[in-house]
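Re: Re: token formats

Sure, here are both.
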Amino acid sequence: MTAVTSEPALRTRSASTSPSRLTFARLLSSEWIKLVSLRSTWWSLAVAAVLSIGLSALIAAVTRDLGAGPGGGPSLAAVNVILLPTQFTMLVAGILGAIAITGEYSTGMIRSTLTAQPRRGAVLAAKAIVVSLVLAATTVVIYAIAILVTAPLVTTGVDWSDASQSVIPLAFGVFAMVVYALIGLGFGFVVRNGAGAIAATVGVLFVLPIVFSLFSIAGESWQWLVDAAQYLPSNAGGTLASTGGSDKLPAFLAMVAWAVVPLGLGWTVLRTRDA
């Protein structure tokens, strides 16, 4: 009797400790394979690289031709030459984040994913981590190439001796690109449709700042809305990546909120709706 009752328990313990069990590390590996095996991922990263490096070179050439700024210094800091294209590449990052999950819904792969890993929060976390790592690594490489390409074109190179003029803005630029991608990923989980998620992402990153800026001519009663525009992701990211020692904490907290809230909504939808 003892042998009969202990054998199922033994099998249960053996199954729970089996090396084939889907751990979080293996879930990360799975999400990595899914992301890097998509042609759309590489096309998006290539577009971001071409836009960023090309625009940086163009800005460097233009500012050099314009000559020195006030006081005889360079008309534009070299690190700003590298970071200004982020206002365009942020859309690519957001779109990449959106299609990283909406593609799974369109093909039905999300069902296989959730069958293999029923803990839906773990699926969202793994995908967010992988998307963040890919965007961060790609942005670092893009910035490095852009610095090398623009070095012959700027009158004064990046001042690496001053962190506020070099490392800190570049690090915040990488952080901003990651946040833009997570915003798209969050909308992708919520909307579950590629076109809809991309539209929502572009609306938040690009359209809302334009709409908010229109209220600058509407009088003092609408000034609060103009002031609130600085906390939109594109404006807050620009503030973080700017040079100088201004207080960046409000912009940083705004960016964190812009990453957390869409992902939180996506987690809620993922838990409460069938795939």
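Second one below.
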Amino acid sequence: MIKFEHSIFALPFAYIGVLLSNNYNLKIFVLVTIAMISARSVAMALNRIIDYKTDKLNPRTQGRELPIGKVQLKEAWVFTIFSFIVFEISAYLLNPLAFKLSFVALFFLITYSYTKRFTWLCHIYLGATDAIAPLGGFVGAVGYLDINIFYLALFVAFWIGGFDILYALQDLTFDLKNGVHSIPVKFGPNLARVFAALFHLVAFIFLLLTIYMYKLNYFAYIGAFLVLCLLIIEHLLVDPKDLKKINIAFFNINSYISIVLVIVFLLGRFIND
């Protein structure tokens, strides 16, 4: 029900947050990793539990573990509570502020699954939820927040929000019939693609601002333009009339973006001109 690749989008940005803090060691990286994976597990498990009845009706999600009975609701709840406890312990072991803000993070992780039931702004809320990753990595490392790390958080928010709009295209027919809210439902598939492109353009600007504010070298700028190229490819792969390549765009391309940015931020921080 919960796969490691569910963490691949957010986890690298927690590492980048740690890296940009200039305060890191093995203990911090291990605790941040545990906190991120357990938090993501809480979010994904709750998402499956909350959407259980809807998933049974949606042809795309009917084969998931809960609808087919491969995983029981009771088991899902036990897993969620266990993941919650692991998350809180890891946050507590990092520092006091990380522990206090962990409850704010949990609020977003728990509530984002409900937003599509009443607002087409659900994509923005999901983006804001995933934007906690770099903030959490930074706070976990140093115990305070720096204004500049919010540029990276805003990149994540608009990047995630943009591809979540594209991902929602495949459920357009079901969502229209069942009262599920999204930008494709509100504005139609063509305008939804425009919204997604604008989101990704704004994300690219915030990525450049992050690199500039942290005075990273040209490797980081090269990485930013590689990300831009990958985003363009992602949009070219998504055709509202033929969504067969949506999973390639969603999982493969966005995974490449995360990995590219971890590598180039490392190079941008540690290799001198």
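The mean pLDDT is 91. The chain has 14 helices and no strands.
- S.
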